[in-house]
Description:
Layout: H1 4-7, H2 9-13, E1 34-41, E2 48-53, E3 64-67, E4 72-77, E5 83-89, E6 94-100, E7 104-113, E8 121-129, H3 132-140, H4 143-155, H5 159-171, H6 174-181, H7 184-210, H8 216-224, H9 233-237, H10 241-245, H11 247-256, E9 270-272, E10 278-280, H12 281-285, E11 290-296, H13 301-317, E12 322-328, H14 333-343, E13 348-351, H15 356-359, E14 367-372, E15 377-380, H16 385-394
Parallel strand pairs: 1-7, 11-12, 12-13
Antiparallel strand pairs: 1-4, 2-3, 2-5, 5-6, 7-8, 9-10, 11-14, 14-15
Amino acid sequence: xxxxxxxxxxxxxxxxxxxxxxxxxxxxxxxxxxxxxxxxxxxxxxxxxxxxxxxxxxxxxxxxxxxxxxxxxxxxxxxxxxxxxxxxxxxxxxxxxxxxxxxxxxxxxxxxxxxxxxxxxxxxxxxxxxxxxxxxxxxxxxxxxxxxxxxxxxxxxxxxxxxxxxxxxxxxxxxxxxxxxxxxxxxxxxxxxxxxxxxxxxxxxxxxxxxxxxxxxxxxxxxxxxxxxxxxxxxxxxxxxxxxxxxxxxxxxxxxxxxxxxxxxxxxxxxxxxxxxxxxxxxxxxxxxxxxxxxxxxxxxxxxxxxxxxxxxxxxxxxxxxxxxxxxxxxxxxxxxxxxxxxxxxxxxxxxxxxxxxxxxxxxxxxxxxxxxxxxxxxxxxxxxxxxxxxxxxxxx
Length: 397
């Protein structure tokens, strides 16, 4: 469901994940390289530390790796323009975001390793100095603290009705969903929600428009939205040529002008189900006329709202040669398995390996691709009534 509400949802929930920026102009000759020196208390020496690109809307490989020694680590390199990175600790156990520029940057923080099985690493007292990018970003995005308070506030008193609606949706009870949706309590909640997201949208649009002359504009597009679609072309059009040709400008351009996969063949790939059993596409497609490859995640509200529609289509056409393959892009396997138990989807459900979704260039979810028996993608983004109409057309015999 490509609505502004869900594009901006990541901004409202993941506010603590983004803490970076820069914009100061100087007449001095800027440094030709950067040095990022970190001092971390609370972690064992030998802890692996990586620099992973962020603000790209994709899973990215690390560009550098080191280990903690005497509580310290150092990264060095050269950049054409400031870039956002996650400094990731351990096996993706915790991270600190930082906008790196060619300068001497110092990062300090206190780490606390969870005693739970996942051994997550939480950080406090984080301080980043030497990057004017961080300082500028904090000033320009100070409004996010107020948005976070607003988000919490408009949910107060609505827990009962939202929980009831969630349970009805999970069970696929459309009649109960409609009943709750027409109640005064739900309508009041929707009105507050609409006002909140209008405020989020306005704040983000103003921030982006203010920086249309340089790389900051495209950068803010990447950080203020969870994903981009062709709907954002007018926003991109306002940028200067310098902004459009910047690193983040090129990322935005690629995302709002995606290449269609319709007509291309799906390469065979293999993923595992909740029990660890591996399946490849050829096995799933064998003997089927059409298969819908559905990318989703447990945390994606539009994805889960679409599941009842998938169940309806599967019930109507599975005995006529139709199959569904749902691929979750969840990072938290336990959250994925919990969602599977709640949704009870009677078709193939596999967990992405961060590679398959990239091959399909998945930027937004839910993302669906209808594939024929030869492995050729014949349509995409079919949902709800559109999916049923297409299947009715293809399987009318």
